[in-house]
Prior knowledge:
Layout: E1 2-3, H1 4-10, H2 16-24, E2 28-30, E3 33-34, E4 41-42, E5 48-50, E6 53-54, E7 62-67, E8 96-97, E9 105-112, H3 115-122, E10 130-137, H4 142-150, E11 152-154, E12 157-159, E13 163-169, E14 175-182, H5 189-196, E15 201-209, E16 212-213, E17 222-224, H6 227-236
Helix pairs in contact: 1-2
Pfam family, one: PseudoU_synth_2
EC number: 5.4.99.-
Family: Belongs to the pseudouridine synthase RsuA family.
Amino acid sequence: MERLQKVLAHAGVASRRQSEKLIMSGRVKVNGAAVTELGTKVGVHDQILVDGVPISSEAPIYIMLYKPRGVVSTANDDKGRKTVVDLVENVSQRVYPVGRLDYDTSGLLLLTNDGELANRLTHPRYEVEKTYIARVTGVPTNDAMKQLRQGITVDGETYAPAKSKVLSAADDRKTAIISLTIHEGKNHQVKKMLAAVGCPVEKLKREQYGFLTLKGLNAGEARQLKPEEVKELRRLTHLA
């Protein structure tokens, strides 16, 4: 017997967190009865429906997408906006994004139906690094960069130390390009950290996720991960 949200995640319905929301909203039925209580356990012989559709165990799939700006990091959007799943073609499995990138942020995003790996990749405990390139207003001082490297608290929220580097600055000193590497994934984290040191973000892109880079992809393009890449992600999250 396993918890219902875990079974939904492993079946590729949604992430563990999103599966919990599906349950609490009454969209999941077990053996014909709606289940809204988290922690409900189910077995292999139980019939599970999500929005009236039976779940099924699908072959795991792992996709890397170069997310463009102006696309939402969800499987569905109630406002009718284009989603990252809309950009993944010729995939029969139900996939969902691992974590998220803001609507106006571009860069590397993973999609999968492997709930266990997705949960570990997004958990700060496993410290999988993500590198962002930001164009900011102003040029950060040495003290500002030191604050980022030591960790910073913004509006009561503490962010772990980040690797930071000024890559370039405009001749008029009004803008700069900064590289920031973090292992957490808190909401709007990079934007909040840079704004806190006096350098609000004008444009943001995720360049790297762990060892994965955008090499060979243009904005809006995707590719399946190679078996050795999946193996390395599992090693990074102690699933190997």
